[in-house]
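Dear colleagues,

I hope this message finds you well. In preparation for our joint manuscript, I am sending the DUF3859 domain-containing protein (Jannaschia helgolandensis) sequence together with its predicted structure, so that both groups work from identical material. I would be grateful if you could confirm receipt.
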Amino acid sequence: MIRSLATVLLLTIVTPATAQVRLVDAGIICPRESTGELVEAPGTEAGYIRLIQQGQTFDLPDRIVPAMDNLSFGFRTALKPGMPMQDVTVVVTHPPMGDRGVEREEWSDVIEPGSESLNLFTFEMDYEKVPGAWEFSIEVDGTPVVRVPFTVTESEGRGRVEQACFQFLS
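The corresponding structure tokens are as follows:
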């Protein structure tokens, strides 16, 4: 029994508690029509996510997000140098949304060495435009290793978005 307990303690000390994932940037992407393949994501309110083009850049490094049609916001992560591929769970928490009052949405992702992972939420449906505290995170084995808070508003920040995104607004 003592030997087993010592082995468990040693494994706990040696095993890293967090993944080697880092935040690259976060912010808002101007409203655009959503394109990309839909893939099943049973951990989301809609039951699917849209695969997005990874080369996109944030138009505003803002964390105050007005609830506007087709506006996207989120974060980009990468592995710390020298780390192997990492399976992660992307989590978005927000005030209750949809008929079921969903507050946590999640999907699986893989972060490859030398690449970045862009994860966004896009307001495609009216029921998604829920004001309040939102948070994007990366979890490894249920433990958050990167967290990025946002505040979704009904109108605050709209002027900044309209100014930065005038060419995309109709």
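For the figure legend, we might mention the following. The CA atoms of residues 67 and 154 lie 6 Å apart. Strands lie at 21-29, 38-40, 48-50, 64-66, 72-79, 86-97, 102-111, 116-122, 132-140, 143-153.

With kind regards,
E.M.
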